[in-house]
Amino acid sequence: MRAADFVRFAAASLAARRLRSGLTALGIAVGIAAVVVLTSIGEGVHHFVLAEFTQFGTTLVAINPGRTTTHGMSVGVFGTERPLTIQDAESLERLSYVEAVVPFVQGNAEVKAGNRRRRTFVYGAGAQMPKAFRMAVQTGSFLPADDPTAPRALAVLGSKLRRELFGRGNPLGRRITVGGSRYRVIGVMAPKGVVLGFDLDDTVYIPAARALALFNRNSLFEIDVMYRPGVKVERVVEGIRRTLVARHGREDFTITTQEQMLDVLGSVLDVLTFAVGAIGGISLLVGAIGIVTIMTIAVNERTAEIGLLRALGARRVQVLALFLGEAVVLAALGGLAGLALGLGLAQGLHAAFPGLPVHTPWRYVLLAESLAVVIGLAAGVLPARRAARLDPVAALRAE
Amino acid sequence: MISLQHIHRDFRVGDQIVHALDDVDLDIAAGEYVSVMGPSGSGKSTLLNLIGLLDRASAGRYLLEGEDVTVLDDDRQAWIRNRRIGFVFQAFHLVPRLTAAENVELPLLLAGVPPAERGKRAAAALRAMGLSDRAGHRPDQLSGGQRQRVAIARATVTEPAVLLADEPTGNLDQHAGQGVIEVLEALNARGITLIVVTHDSAIGGRARRRVRMLDGRIVADEAEADRAPA
Question: What is the ipTM of this complex?
Answer without folding.
Answer: 0.93
